[in-house]
């Protein structure tokens, strides 16, 4: 196969990048699962935006403080200053956000935010955004989407990327030749027993990067979300109880139904407090009380959370629900510059698989969707001005037999886990 731009991943970053690229470029999007099996689709709380210039300093400081001041300040500035343009784009694609009675955008607040600056749609903001982007991309004649296609490796010659080796759903192997490749493969939740991520998101792009000596950054910076619904004996993806419920007033209790912490702490600090309380109580969860939120607000803002709790046997309108921390987000990843360019020529990385330094050591709530979209746009702008390939690569020399072993993805998981452990040991 031959394409101008190969995008690996169908989350909001990959889709938005495709939308921002020139219409005369042939674009191929591949995704390891179904089109909608991406973590962008699962995002509940919302997407941050700069409300007005008067909020800039506070937004910047909130992001830096949550990230323990390890953030790349230029990246943070780019994210905030481009936020309104991204929201305007989303609205133009038909994405709906909650509105006030006068029709103006409604804003909510989440943990570690000093202001109400988060746009949302009920408690399925990620789904609303991703569906809007899918609808817009589906109208483009220059974009082809291939589902259940796994990237096994990139094709490298003299430090440049010329596409990738893929495995289709039926097990057949193929090569996609591309002038430019964008990795948007999502997080690493599939490496963990308990995660809010889809289990097929196993950090494959990181393993490929390690194999090709592509620069990584902060690979051990892994965020644990403080509150997922606790279900005894559960396996598979954990259901997230959005930070927004605490932003709207939900409280956390110990086994004696006593409040034990500030619910609006940054995620890492709140997770520490919950684990500490669980150890004191000798329990596997703590309690979260959503009844502190006005009933009408609870029903209109969080209908899917209420339904998920009811399916698990709890009624959050009338009782507390058990919650426990779980792996949620990956702040590290493939190092990229401020245009989302990796250390390899013709290769970009965007979304959760990339590390541009925006989040520092810990992500501020609802910055992930915004960061993914802003830096996807910057990647597309950089690709626009990059020189096309000159057809110097001999694709006939690639031996696909090297990729026939079905265990290659298991090997990639081990590569990533071993590297995380190695970095952790160095830091210790």
Per DSSP E runs of 2 or more residues, the count of β-strands stands at 16
Output the structural class: alpha/beta
- Total count of helical runs of at least 4 residues: 13
Mean pLDDT: 94
- State the domain count: 2
Which segments are poorly predicted (pLDDT under 50) over 5 or more consecutive residues? none
The CATH architecture of the largest domain would be 3-Layer(bba) Sandwich
Kindly estimate the percentage of residues that lie in beta strands according to DSSP: 15-25%
Q: Helix proportion of residues, in percent?
A: 25-40%
CATH class of the largest domain: Alpha Beta
Provide an overview of this structure.
The mean pLDDT is 94. This protein starts with a strand and ends with a helix. It has 2 domains: 2-221 and 331-427, FAD/NAD(P)-binding domain; 224-326, Succinate dehydrogenase/fumarate reductase flavoprotein, catalytic domain (Flavocytochrome C3, Chain A, domain 1), CATH 3.90.700. Strands 1, 2, 5, 6, 7, 8 and 15 form a 7-stranded mixed beta sheet that branches. The protein is built from 13 helices and 16 strands. The relative contact order is 0.19. The protein has 428 residues and is of the alpha/beta class. Helix content is 32%, strand content 19%.
Short synopsis of the structure:
This protein is 32% helix and 19% strand. The protein is built from 13 helices and 16 strands. Strands 1, 2, 5, 6, 7, 8 and 15 form a seven-stranded mixed β-sheet that branches. It has a four-stranded antiparallel β-sheet with strand order 10-13-12-11, with helices on one face. The chain has a three-stranded mixed β-sheet with strand order 9-14-16, with helices on one face.
């Amino acid at each position: 196969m031959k394409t101008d731009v190969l995008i690996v991943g169908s989350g909001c970053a990959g889709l938005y990048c495709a939308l921002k690229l020139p219409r005369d470029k042939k674009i191929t999007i591949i995704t390891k699962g179904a089109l909608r099996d991406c973590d962008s689709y699962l995002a509940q709380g919302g997407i941050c935006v700069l409300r007005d210039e008067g909020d800039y300093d506070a937004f910047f400081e909130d992001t830096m403080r949550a990230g323990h001041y390890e953030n790349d300040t230029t990246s943070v500035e780019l994210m905030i200053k481009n936020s309104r343009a991204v929201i305007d784009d989303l609205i133009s694609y038909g994405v709906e956000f909650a509105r006030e009675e006068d029709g103006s955008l409604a804003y909510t607040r989440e943990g570690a935010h000093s202001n109400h600056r988060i746009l949302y749609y009920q408690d399925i903001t990620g789904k609303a955004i991703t569906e809007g982007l899918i609808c817009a991309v589906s109208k483009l004649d220059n974009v082809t989407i291939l589902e259940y296609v796994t990237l096994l490796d990139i094709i490298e010659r003299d430090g440049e990327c010329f596409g990738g080796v893929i495995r289709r759903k039926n097990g057949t192997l193929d090569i996609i030749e591309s002038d430019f490749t964008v990795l948007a493969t999502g997080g690493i939740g599939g490496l963990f027993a308990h995660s809010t991520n889809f289990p097929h998101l196993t950090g494959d792009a990181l393993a490929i990067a390690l194999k090709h000596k592509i620069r990584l950054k902060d690979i051990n910076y892994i965020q644990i979300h403080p509150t997922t619904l606790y279900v005894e004996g559960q396996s598979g993806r954990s259901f997230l109880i959005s930070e927004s419920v605490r932003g709207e007033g939900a409280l956390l209790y110990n086994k004696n139904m006593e409040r034990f912490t500030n619910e609006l702490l940054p995620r890492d600090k709140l997770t520490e407090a919950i684990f500490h309380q669980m150890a004191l109580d000798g329990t596997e969860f703590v309690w979260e009380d959503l009844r502190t939120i006005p009933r009408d607000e609870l029903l209109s803002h969080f209908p899917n959370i209420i339904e998920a709790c009811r399916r698990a046997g709890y009624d959050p309108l009338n009782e507390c629900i058990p919650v426990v921390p779980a792996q949620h987000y990956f702040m590290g990843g493939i190092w990229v510059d401020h245009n989302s360019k990796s250390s390899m020529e013709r290769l970009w990385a965007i979304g959760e698989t990339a590390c541009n330094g925006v989040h520092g050591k810990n992500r501020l709530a609802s910055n992930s969707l915004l960061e993914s979209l802003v830096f996807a746009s910057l990647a597309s702008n950089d690709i626009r001005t990059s020189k096309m390939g000159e057809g110097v690569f001999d694709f006939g020399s690639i031996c696909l037999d090297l990729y026939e072993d079905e265990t290659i993805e298991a090997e990639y998981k081990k590569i990533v886990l071993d590297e995380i452990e190695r970095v952790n040991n160095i830091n210790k």
